[in-house]
Amino acid sequence: MAEKTIKIDPKLAKYGTGRRKEAIARVWLLPGEGRIIVRSSSGKEWDGKEYFERDILLAKIRYPFEVTNTAGKFDVYATVEGSGKPAQAEAVMYGVAKALEAYNPELRSPLKSAGLMTRDARIKERKKYNQMGARAKYRWSKR
């Protein structure tokens, strides 16, 4: 594993865990100018724009800051694992919301009204026995 480029000071940083589908994101908010650094499960650290590639995913991560008018005040350091990049981005979004609440409990109300304090619990349904998938069945033949 590579060494972290950022030292997280427990006195200044606020932490939040976000989950979505199979993705888990551990998020630390540090005072800064709005940088996003992502550490993937391989141990490599990426700039947020390089890792998530699509602007819509970065917009999801920045959404809690827009809701609470704290854009540009914090740097985000997140470790992500599991699932795909869209689910990881949403997990980071939920983690940022929890960390913002830890920073200032008064921010809970706008975050909750924006739907950021409720975890999206939709996950993949399991495959059932004697079926092709979760819902799809094998074709029935009388003879």
Reported for the largest beta sheet, the result is:
5 strands, mixed
Oligomer: single chain
Q: What's the architecture of the domain at 14-113, going by CATH? A: 2-Layer Sandwich
Helix/strand/pairing class, anyone?
alpha+beta
CATH topology of the domain at 14-113: Ribosomal Protein S5, domain 2
Shape: elongated
**pLDDT < 50 stretches:** none
Straight-line distance between termini:
59 Å
How many DSSP-defined strands? 5
On the 0 to 100 scale, the average pLDDT is 92
Number of helices: 4
Cα radius of gyration in angstroms: 18 Å
Write a structural description.
This protein is of the alpha+beta class. The protein has a domain at 14-113: Ribosomal Protein S5, domain 2, CATH 3.30.230.10. Helix content is 31%, strand content 22%. The protein is built from 4 helices and 5 strands. It has helices at residues 48-52, 55-68, 85-103, 108-113; strands spanning 14-20, 23-31, 36-39, 45-47, 74-81. The chain has a 5-stranded mixed β-sheet. β3 and β4 (45-47) form a beta hairpin. α2 (55-68) runs parallel beside α3 (85-103). The radius of gyration is 18 Å and the shape is elongated. It starts with 13 loop residues before the first strand and ends in a 30-residue tail after the last helix. The model has no long low-confidence stretch (mean pLDDT 92).
